[in-house]
Amino acid sequence: MWTTRLLILGLVRWLQPVHGYDVLKELTSWNAEDWAKIKPGSVYHGLKKLTTDGCLEVVSTEQVDKRPARTSYRVTAKGETEFQQVLREKLWGIEPVVDPFFVAWSFAPVLGPREAAAMLRNRAALITAQMRQNLAWLDVADSGDPTAGSFIPGHVQEAMRLATDAMRLTVDWCERVAVRAENGELGFDDERGYSEETIEHWRRHIRTLPDPATLRSSLRRGVDEGE
User: Fold this and answer.
1) Whole-angstrom distance, CA of residue 178 vs CA of residue 209
2) Among 8, 113, 117, 173, which residue is least crowded by beta carbons within 10 Å?
3) pLDDT tens per residue, range 33-66
């Protein structure tokens, strides 16, 4: 997974030579398991895979008493090339972010208007709690003293502000759409999600759609031609 490779390469590059255990501790302090879905086992597996791929090399392996051996790593020329390429590819490019909420939202009419409104207000409350936590961290953040317990690098603070702004917009959206759901403006039905008449119209419409393979081919051709 590119996220694991980039995070490991970036940290090893900054801290080299560095123990794999220290990489794990630093990523844990970043809460990477929450926002990057990187589990502890993935870090050690990633270090070994990057070494096998020639992107990292072992500097030394230390054995202290009966503790598990600790291996130190550094980035190779190949690893530096991959890091620079992936870093710029992800910073300069734009990729769709698939939030599980929006996948499930496709079938939100099944909930009916009342449950949909309750769900949206609950989502707003959960996000508001996250937003307040972000703001609390930002209130005490210190970007000038790396030794301070409240130290958060300036660029990380800006990312937190961006996330907070997105949360605020999401809360507003949830509250507004909850009202629309309650007022019956979204067309939700309490049983199937849509009325039988709407579903039948939907069936007829699907029959008029182009063949999926033909549509994909047309879309790819349009992208290649810059349409």
Assistant:
1) 32
2) 173
3) 888 888 888 899 999 999 999 999 999 988 776 7
